[in-house]
Structures are given as C-alpha cells and as structure tokens.
C-alpha cells in the first residue's frame, strides 16, 4: 500500500518542482535590476537608469528615470526579495519635466504598505544643477523629512501616508535655493 502512495506522490512532486523551477518566472538578481527590467519594457533603448536605491523595511525603494518618445519619465518602486529573486511589490511612473519645480522634476507617490513594506509617502525627482545639496519636504501630517541629493537626484521618504505640501531645496552652505509649494 505504501508503494502505491509513493508511486502517486513522486510524479506529483516532480511536476510541482518542474513548475516552480522552470515554468513559473523567477525574480531579478537585484532590487535595481527589478525596476530596470520593468522600465526597459517601455523605455527607449539605453535610456533607463537607476537614480537612487534606498533600504526600506524588508526591501528597497528605487527611483529610476527613462525616456519614452519625447517624454522624460520617472519611476518609483518598492522591491522585495522573495525566494527566487527580487520583485516589485509597488510601482508607479509619471511624466517628468526637468522644470516641474523650478530646480528639477517631481514625482509624488505613497503606499499603504504590505508584507515587508511599511507604509510610506515619497517626493522624488531629478535636479537640473549640481548646486542643490539637500531637499526638505514639509508634509500635511505636520512633519518634515529630508534627503541629500545624490547624482543630481533626490528621494525624500516619510513613514505613513501623507501629502507633501512644500519642498525646500538647499545649497551645501544651508542657503535656500528654492522653496516650492506642492499641491
């Protein structure tokens, strides 16, 4: 009787393993590859680039830029590693003008969170010049948060879901370059 159970279960187990390892898609090798794989599906050739990769919860918040026709676009995603690689658990993209907020572009997004992903709100973008050192965001919750510019890009994240009200762009010496209402 035991050999009958084994004869039935062994082929089923083999089919399941075949599905898991060869048929079902795996994730990307890294968090950055996960978002770049997504944006290259619609981006013009060789225009996708990772701007910022930041740890968040059990995963990574990622900001990427790319060109699509005559449009510049920004993409923001949350990637998490699950068994067979990195996958995007949250993703948004938006047309971005290099002068959205006088000194650069702006993408605003939020997520209620999920497995391994605490709720977050973000303001991110590319900067037109190298003179901006830090970006401070004032949120509707009454709190402020900031981030340093990195390679002419910024990603300011606030825990929880809230709305950004204002962005301040500061030079290295702390002088304000621009103050922009967001609404």
Strand and helix layout:
Layout lengths: L1 H22 L7 H9 L9 E8 L2 E10 L2 E11 L4 E10 L11 E5 L8 E7 L7 E6 L4 E5 L4 E7 L4 E7 L5 E6 L2
Antiparallel strand pairs: 1-2, 2-3, 3-4, 5-6, 6-9, 7-8, 7-10, 10-11
For this entry, give a set of tags.
183 residues, alpha+beta, four-stranded antiparallel beta sheet, 2 helices, 45% strand
Summarize the structure.
The protein is 17% helix and 45% strand.
Overall description:
The longest helix is centred in the N-terminal third of the chain and has 22 residues, at 2-23. This protein has helices at residues 2-23, 31-39; strands at residues 49-56, 59-68, 71-81, 86-95, 107-111, 120-126, 134-139, 144-148, 153-159, 164-170, 176-181. By secondary structure, it is of the alpha+beta class. Helix content is 17%, strand content 45%.
Characterize the biggest β-sheet.
4 strands, antiparallel
Chain oligomer state: single chain
Q: Looking across the biggest beta sheet, what order are the strands in?
A: 1-2-3-4
Report the total helices.
Answer: 2
Q: What is the N-to-C succession of helices and strands?
A: HHEEEEEEEEEEE
Number of strands: 11
